[in-house]
TrEMBL record:
Top-level taxonomic group: Bacteria
Organism of derivation: Rhodocista pekingensis
Name under which the protein is recorded: PQ-loop repeat-containing protein
Listed Gene3D superfamilies: 1.20.1280.290
Entry annotated with the keyword Transmembrane: yes
Keywords, comma-separated and alphabetical: Membrane, Transmembrane, Transmembrane helix
Segments traversing the membrane: 6-25, 37-58, 64-84
Amino acid sequence: MQDLLTLTYAVGGIAAAAFHVPQWLRLWRTPALVAGISPWSWLGWFGISLNSLAYALLVNHDRALIAMSVLTIVCQAVMLSLMARAHAKVRTAQRAATDDPAASLGAAVP
């Protein structure tokens, strides 16, 4: 029974990692979506995951928990990196719009 639970835990962790991919792709393709994503939530989850990894490494020594913690941390780090990239792209676009004198006149400038 324990082996079955370990297997389902691993499969669930891999599936959870795969569920990050659609979010990454949307954020990569449409950086403006970052406005609707809380960086504090992702940073909080990242911190909790680091704590889980520390627990797994130092207290529990469970290889499955260590592997899933590392996988989760990698996924969260990718998300945080994509969020930082998206914020930078949005800021750059906003600066370009305010620096362009035609932008304040509208798109149709003869």
